[in-house]
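Bench notes, afternoon.
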Amino acid sequence: MRRVAPLVLLAAITVLTSSAAAQGGEALLRKAGAPTPVPNPSFVAARDVEYKVVWDITGAPATPGEMAPGIARPANFLMIAEANGVARARVHLAIIVSGGATAAVLTNEAYHAVAGVDNPNVALLQAMADAGVRVIVCGQALAGKKYTRDQVLPFVQVATSATFARATLHAEGYATFSP
């Protein structure tokens, strides 16, 4: 009986931890993207439109332990779309990471090696990717900073350049925003 109790406790902890982790992505999106409530707006988003938006994420954080500026914009857009009654299936989002923000898409290990701290962007980037946000990095920026593909998070798409990624997404109907 004494051996069974610790095993049952371990199994329960494992199930609870897995359940919390599964909910963590959506909870993180909601926290990072929480909009300021606007009472009685007179201009609301159309619910029958396909929204396609891409953000250029180029700025480096003030310190390595901070998230790249603007990286949470897609999470905010998702939450505002939801508040407007727009179905998530109608929202198509992407970010193109380049310049000083390039390190944001590095694995935790690679980021730690170059910055000395864990990558604060990983959890939100993963949550956004899981929610369907395309995360794209400029291949020119990777090469210029001497980062290799195996140092980049596995869900990140590597483009030949940020400019070409932007042009391609524009041709697909995406509007480009800057943070």
